[in-house]
Design a protein that fits this description.
By secondary structure, this protein is an alpha/beta fold. The chain has a domain of 289 residues: Alpha/Beta hydrolase fold, catalytic domain (Rossmann fold). Helices cover 30% and strands 16% of the residues. It has twelve helices and nine strands. It has a nine-stranded mixed sheet with strand order 1-2-3-5-4-6-7-8-9, with helices on both faces. The N terminus is likely disordered.
Length: 440
């Protein structure tokens, strides 16, 4: 995988990839709904959410069917949302590709009147929050960065449909950074929203994601023609790219070197999410604590009961890196990970807006270039914007100046152009520009 994390402050491609720094969430919502049970320290991080998230019986066999909905507390929503609806819906298990599962998410409606035909949809794929159920955005809420971002799309006249992803909020492991589970979850959330609110939503969809969400959005875009041809997806907005494509022979743009697939070489917080989410999903029969040191077990407890910021804090308190968490036998859990992580080709059949901050010290610049190059070489229409002095966080809202016109053009049916002919390696990491909101 070309998106793995480096240890210490210089997170490698994946760590980066994983999509969030402590400031991504700015702490949990202070008034999250009350849980019916305390978080359980179990293998998959289940527990701590309300009974709404617990499916009763087997989910519907067909994907994208609403199981139940409930109103969200308006005072906890982004300020530009008129109302929010929490939704539990059916999807396809992205690990075995056969079983029907329940996934949670939310629908946010703007304050502006619905246009004829309904509001178009921003399908928002969120960045890294954690692997425990309590980290699901529909339960936990949003940080200020994402509130600002969602407000802009609501103000532009879009409804927001946001999946929590398989295993976040709902029972079972969260297949962290695996494109099929995340892609299926995103596409079926939109199907469920269109079925339950067909009077105010229209089948015009933009997939939007940052960091972990960028891989989810691109994965959903790649899967959609085969998995969800009923959805009218117009394009994709992906920033802080954390995505990997299977390398193709004879590509015009040689791949830049990125590595560090071994969790022992990663930042401790991201390494634990990699093992507790990605690898546990692929090998649920194995308790990964068999491969952990005493410090690793302490970090594992946090991963199974709390969220990303708590993992950062615990790693700091323990003064550990990924190398301190695992025994050498952890390689056993890597079996099948690359195949489950890499999108088979870079050919996406809708236009892609890609945004990269040149001061992004979390998602590796070479990894982001490789992703853009893979899409360009495969024939995808890509418009790649690079932002001087913007970080992983700063690029989220900083890219709106370009992504909003791009999306509006797609919505109006106007011709959009790509810039694949002019892409080049991004060069050395730049220092962050001070004074820009969220540019930490």
């Amino acid at each position: 995988m070309c998106w793995k994390l480096l240890a210490s402050l210089l997170l490698s491609c994946l760590a980066v990839a994983l999509g969030a720094s402590p400031n991504d969430l700015n702490g949990p919502e202070k008034s999250a709904p009350s849980p019916t049970t305390l978080p359980a320290d179990n293998l998959f991080g289940d527990g701590g959410t309300s009974s709404f998230y617990q499916p009763q019986g087997k989910p519907p066999n067909a994907p994208g069917i609403v199981i139940r909905t409930e109103a969200m507390d308006n005072s906890k929503l982004p300020s530009s949302a008129a109302r929010g609806i929490r939704v539990l819906y059916s999807s396809t298990n992205g690990i075995d590709r056969s079983q029907s599962i329940a996934v949670s998410g939310q629908i946010l409606l703007p304050k502006s009147p619905a246009p004829p035909g309904g509001w178009p949809i921003i399908a928002w794929e969120h960045g890294t929050t954690g692997i425990a159920d309590v980290c699901a955005p529909s339960w936990r809420g949003y940080g200020s960065r994402d509130r600002t971002y969602l407000n802009r799309w609501l103000d532009e006249g879009f409804a927001i449909v946001a999946t929590d992803y398989q295993g976040l909020g709902t029972p079972g492991p969260h297949p962290y950074l695996l494109y099929r589970p995340e892609g299926y979850s995103a596409l079926d959330a939109v199907r469920a929203a269109l079925r339950t609110m067909s009077d105010v939503l229209q089948n015009k969809i933009i997939l939007v994601g940052q960091s972990q969400g960028s891989g989810a959005a691109l994965g959903a875009g790649w899967l959609a023609p085969r998995y969800a041809p009923d959805l009218n997806i117009l394009g994709i907005v992906a920033t802080g790219l954390v995505v990997d494509f299977v390398p193709q022979a004879g590509s015009a743009h040689p791949l830049l070197p990125v590595s560090f697939e071994d969790p022992a070489q990663m930042d401790a917080a991201y390494a634990m999410l990699e093992v507790e989410g990605t690898e546990e999903s692929l090998h649920p029969e194995v308790d990964d604590r068999r491969f952990m040191t005493a410090s690793g077990i302490e970090m594992s407890h946090v991963a199974r009961t709390a969220c990303l910021i708590d993992l950062f804090n615990k790693a700091k308190a323990l003064n550990v890196s990924g190398a301190d968490l695992f025994t050498k036998q952890i390689a056993e859990l890597n079996v099948g990970k690359k195949e489950a992580s890499q999108i088979p080709t870079g050919l996406i059949q809708v236009p892609v807006f890609a945004g990269t901050g040149l001061a992004d010290y979390e998602a590796s610049l070479p990894g982001q270039y490789n992703a853009v190059a893979a899409m360009c070489d495969a024939g995808t229409l890509v418009n790649w914007h690079r932002y001087r002095g913007l970080t992983h966080n700063g690029t989220v809202n900083g890219s709106l100046q370009d992504s909003v016109p791009f999306v509006k053009a797609l919505l109006s049916g106007a011709h959009v152009t790509g810039n694949c002919e002019s892409i080049s390696p991004p060069g050395p990491l730049q220092p962050p520009t001070p004074g820009i909101p969220f540019n930490d």
